[in-house]
């Protein structure tokens, strides 16, 4: 059986502390046993499931929601200034409780209790339950404390290992970095050396190629000149072909065509006529002179 003991204050006697115990088997909605005591007297009552359903119907609430309100009111242990108010009449043994919503309050439930003839037994049971609960809580607390200490030791151990791992990792990283720097410097030196050798080989190849190209160029020039001379001699021996003459004539015609225009053609005709006349008289004059020279030879006196 599950129990819950709470401290409440009655509206009629707010200065007196009352203890309310609620015990149930399965759930609070299936029925519970309620006990009330002020330390001197005790009252007890049983609330069945049908009464809970009837109260829910009277409140026009669903049963599950009404049971939740019962838990908040009876199990949470509300104080005098809290949301829930408790009333109890010692004459009629009627117990009721209300819920305050701002300035409005409504009744959540009411039960009839019976006065216990031997309240000491109920009080003793409450005290035993409280002591058992305290002992159980203390044992659980001690177990949790030991568990916390164990977890703290494990955490310290793990933290120490972690710090060692971090230190080892940093040492390994430092060593690897130093080795990497050494290897990198060696590789750089090798690369620079190979680059220098490559440049030297390239310069040597360029010089060799330049030396080879120089005599080759002179030989090619000499051969070209000899070939040119030979071709010129052969061309001088070979008579010009008709095509060459034709081309020369065409070039001459072109030069004539491209020369400046003649201003007048008539004077050239006159000059040709005079030249022809002079050519016709020159032989006659020459023959006359020859006859005179022969006569002088025959007659020297």
From TrEMBL:
Coiled-coil portions: 184-214
Organism domain of life: Eukaryota
Entry's localization field: Chromosome; Cytoplasm; Nucleus
Stretches assigned to the XRCC4 C-terminal domain: 222-299
Domain XRCC4 N-terminal: start-end pairs: 18-113
Keywords of this entry: Actin-binding, Chromosome, Coiled coil, Cytoplasm, DNA damage, DNA recombination, DNA repair, DNA-binding, Isopeptide bond, Nucleus, Phosphoprotein, Ubl conjugation
Protein's name in the database: DNA repair protein XRCC4
Sequence similarity: Belongs to the XRCC4-XLF family. XRCC4 subfamily.
Gene: XRCC4
